[in-house]
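Exercise: predict the fold of this chain.
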Amino acid sequence: MKNKTKGLITGVVALSIMMLVYFPLCGAQKPCVVMISLDGFRSDYPEMVHLATFDSLAKVGVRAQSLKPAFPSITFPNHYTMATGLYSDHHGIVANSFYDPTSARHYSISDRSAVEDAAFYGGEPVWVTAEKQGVRTASFFWVGSEAPIRGRYPTYWKKYDQKVPFSARVDTVISWLSLPVDKRPQLVMMYYHEPDASGHRYGPESKEMKECLVDLDHKLSELTGKLKGLTIFPDINFIVVSDHGMEATSHKRSVKLGEYLTTTWFSQIKGSSPVLMFKVKDNNREKAFAALKHVPHCRVWKSDEIPPELHYGKNPRTLDFVLLADNGWSVKLGDDDRVSEGSHGFDPDQRKMHAIFYAAGPSFKKGYAAKELNTLDIYPLVCRLLHIRPEIVDGKIEKVLDMLQ
């Protein structure tokens, strides 16, 4: 009996030590994470123009060398990767628009019925992980939060409307964080569409982009200033991320697919430049693939032969073939397709596809320059900060431990 009691005590002590390692003790206040994503904020933009608020964040907290996106380096897949810690092959949001051959249904970011349908979303986003463990969450336009994934929404969430002014979004976030403790969210996730929109319209190194960056610096200052006015501010871990970078593109560096293949060979062509997915009609597979192989300034693979480092092609939603334009090139399906001044979606190893990561708060070191991170690592990081048990995911908590206190 004595040995059994001794063994039980030893087990309890070991479990207690393990819990302290993964969920270290905090103060009396509940942990709080506020994370904002600025779409298309390239990792080197802070060197293009003076950004006082970003510089201040780096001084009082952490700035990573860059945040590497998962493939494809586009908005919906990477925002959902940050939310779940999974590659797009594993969570199913393989592009901003795609075809699901299993259900014979289409997904598009502009289709409300699809965006709000949980059947399209695999994995478990961090707000679901948190809500299951009794932690209230809130989302202002984060990808996936408008669908009842695994039967759950965030406690507070908004239907996407790009017209909502940034200041109104900030005021809503502050109102959430000012609620009584039994109603207050401990995780707030917020999305804003710039500087991505300006990057596409004017180009990543344009005068207009620099003006946009300065404006975003002011907007970020508005948010941080109001956060500092909260009584819970000392307990807030504040994170600024982005989903991808931006590369300059032009009409001169574009390829018309119609000059190399017959579109009637395919039952579906999904995605958008520079990443397209093709579903072939019967008996056209080999000639269609041979034609795609001749498209210049592009790489094309059968989906089950995509290089393993891209972690893409195993999900049936990637269809039969995947085409990727070379860095800085565009592919056009028709003569009327417009080529923007900037684009993304290219190989994540390209530095101009990398995004930003800043963080400050009680859990982070001060003035710390972190190494390159992955969008995959955001999920385990947020779980760690909230002291909740994460799902088994592709992201690695080991990648972010060095920046934590």
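Check your answer against the key: The chain has a mean pLDDT of 94.
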